[in-house]
Amino acid sequence: MYPLLEINLGKIYQNARYIVKFCESKNIDVAFVVKGFNAIPEVVNLISQSGCKYIADSRIEHIKKLVKNNINSKFMLLRIPMLSEIKDLVKYVNISLNSEIKTLIEIEKECLIQNKEHNVILMYDVGDLREGIFEDEELIQTALYIEKNLKKVKLYGIGTNVGCYGGVVPTKENIGKLEKVAIQIEEKIGRKLNIISGGATTSLTLLIKDEMPKKINNLRIGEGMILGRDLKDLWGYDIKEIHKDAFILKAQVVEVKQKPSKPIGKLFVDAFGKIPEFKDYGIRKRALLAIGKADFVFCDQLIPRLQGIKILGGSSDHLILDINDCKEDIQVGDILEFEICYGPMLYLTNSSCVRKVFV
Ligand SMILES: *Cc1c(COP(=O)(O)O)cnc(C)c1O
């Protein structure tokens, strides 16, 4: 049954072990972020045995699913909690990232009802402009507020995130701001913070360069462990030990034909309201695959494994390839393989039309 997504558990485990050991050697513990593959329990179960300290996800539904699957780990919620999910938060999550006193007070109330404690990491926005408190004085005051006024909500640490919305590069200067404010908070509360979390996969670049500020003791790693593509393709830091092909997409050819490379007739908009552009390369051999944007959204983030194949585009249910320069004799019924980037991984793992096969 095709299309299918082949998930190589051995490779993922090796990736996870490598990242844990690498970070350990720099005195950093790891929260593995599993939202990128929709927290498939079989995969998370394996990752949870890699020596990482936490399993993290931005969606509480994923964490609930993992708890129900008896995954043995501490769970961290990455997205600032909604007021409407506080009950589940206290019930299922050990640690959450936060930035609003209003929300913290609601968590405290729910903790009193459930008679449970909840750990929070206060987020500091050093410039990427997604979540977090922007002014350092406000961060310090919020930390002190938790420490002094809340009983069941514990100030576990502080953290920051860069590179996700604004695309800001982690540097020893901006992550250094987190270190500086951590020192100030520790002086004021008279104890060490458990966690000072210095970012996501992109922050691995600071570890590689040995430029990570010393007090940072945690990173939240998703892509760099699962695929390792961004560090190599975008940042120019190839960690050779990381398998980039733990997820392989396999789809079936349903049509092979010679066709012109430029559509015939007056061109208007495609299925998604975009006006497409074409160059005329003459008659070319093409293959049509039974999978489409409904499954992976981004055609240009699939990487064909066969040489000489070019992705031309797709519609919701078709992927169109130029196979003119491919040495293989591709036929109807053949299965073609693709490596995938983060975007397609996110959608493919969530598509009910794509079978998941573990190897
Ligand atoms: C998604 C996310 C991460 C992990 O990002 P990767 O680039 O996949 O490592 C870390 N922290 C937060 C807050 C996130 O939302």
TrEMBL record:
Pfam families per UniProt: Ala_racemase_N
Which keywords describe this protein according to UniProt?
Isomerase, Pyridoxal phosphate
Write the signal peptide boundaries. none
Q: What are this entry's molecular-function GO terms? A: alanine racemase activity; pyridoxal phosphate binding
User: What are the Alanine racemase N-terminal domain coordinates in residue numbering?
Assistant: 7-225
Per its UniProt record, what Gene3D superfamilies does this chain match?
Answer: Alanine racemase (3.20.20.10)
**Record GO cellular component, one term:** cytosol
List the cofactors: pyridoxal 5'-phosphate
Q: Which InterPro entries match?
A: Ala_racemase, Ala_racemase_N, PLP-binding_barrel
* Protein name per Swiss-Prot or TrEMBL: Alanine racemase domain protein
